[in-house]
Amino acid sequence: MANVDDKNFGLSEEAFSDLKDKLIEGDEQLFEHVFLRHFDVCLAYVVREDKAPEHLAYDAVMDALLTFRQKIMTGKITYGNLRYLLTRMARQHYYRRANKESATNFETLPELSEVPVLQLDPSATELLQRGWARLSDKCQQLLRAFYFLNQELKTIAQATGRKPEALRKQKQRCVDQLRGLVTEKE
Q1: Distances in Å between the alpha carbon of 109 and those of 18, 24, 41, 97, 114?
Q2: pLDDT in tens, 52-78
């Protein structure tokens, strides 16, 4: 059976408390200690136990570490079985990432050139294409899914793990951005 120090990255309760106070003051020693002591172990665990692709597991463990750090700083995490807690958080981050990837993936949507374009005046088409080319990838993907593939925002939101209201606002910002790029004078 592992002792309490092993369950807490080799730190006694007093050492953890001291490093936590230093972390709040800006000294990242606790975060570095946890990272060096647990990152590789946690990554291997998520890959092995959840059969996770390494790139997704890596991102999930990194996200969990950042969340863990933030929760320590805000006093939401106290001394206990910290190793188990961080590993559990990493697995939860992985599950969220895996669900997002398995849902409708924007990257699998057809390119703009594959989607029929409305017949517009040639100069208007050129302006639109120029604006579209300068639009961010995320905006292109969202607008393509909504306007060209006729997907509802609710469906896109479910597929991307976002709230429909947030996606509606993002869509409006993307439309405004495109409008600005189209009407912008070079």
Answers
A1: 51, 44, 36, 19, 10
A2: 889 889 999 999 999 998 888 888 888
